[in-house]
Amino acid sequence: MIIAVDGPTAAGKGTIARALAAHYGLPHLDTGLLYRAVGRHCAASGGNPDDPAAALAAAAFPNSLLEDPALRSEESGGLASRVSVHPAVRRALYDRQRAFALQPGGAVLDGRDIGTVIAPEAAAKLFVTASVSARARRRFLEMEARGIPVSLDAIEADLAARDLRDQTRSTAPLIAAADAVTLDTSDLIPSAAIAEAVRVVEQKLGR
Ligand code: C5P
């Protein structure tokens, strides 16, 4: 049983994917972390994330990098968004994601192109979204709680720029799969969004 959870940044897809994985006892892969690792490894090696060759070389990042808390930063998200436009980078990360999806028993993957490219045969596909202002507000409160000084306007501008880059790239743009169910979390608290996600998956499974 493969469950695909796609959507823009800070819409709640990570929270929902983790909760679905716990609910169904499935392993979970946050595919954004792979792109973040490529972006960070590229920058740390002195490469330009906008250069396809430099970005591709960074796809051979050491696995230990996936444990680095710095991958969660806004800076890493921006670098990920830049390296992820290169088709060669997406190809380089395909096998790893595909193998994860196909493991016996199934898996939950979250990202941008899980339902469209990585696992088009997924049993259930969710497209988790929320308004830019709701997502910016959440990110702002999250960073404030961590003591990171940021401005709400700057976060909103950054999210909007990242959305645009993700939606307009020619390879695997961020779009809902035709058979995905859209879940707008703008006005939902996490527990309500999770309950709704479980309901959607149960329905897809015909239960
Ligand atoms: O989900 P997360 O914010 O960690 O993703 C960071 C960036 O990585 C996204 O903005 C997107 O550009 C890229 N990404 C992608 N495909 C995925 C996961 C992430 O292009 N499956």
Question: Could you please describe the fold and organization of this structure?
Answer:
The chain is an alpha/beta fold. The protein has a single domain (about 1-205), classed as P-loop containing nucleotide triphosphate hydrolases (Rossmann fold, 3-Layer(aba) Sandwich), CATH 3.40.50. The chain is built from nine helices and five strands. A five-stranded parallel beta sheet has the order 2-3-1-4-5, sandwiched between helices. Helix 2 (about 30-45) crosses helix 4 (about 75-85). The mean pLDDT is about 95. The protein binds cytidine-5'-monophosphate. Cytidine-5'-monophosphate (C5P) binds near residues 35, 36, 111, 113 and 166.
The profile of the biggest β sheet is: 5 strands, parallel
Bound small molecules, which ones?
cytidine-5'-monophosphate
Q: What value does the Rg take, in angstroms? A: 16 Å
Through-space gap between termini: 14 Å
CATH topology grouping: Rossmann fold
- The parts where pLDDT drops under 50 for at least 5 residues are none
- Mean pLDDT across the residues is 94
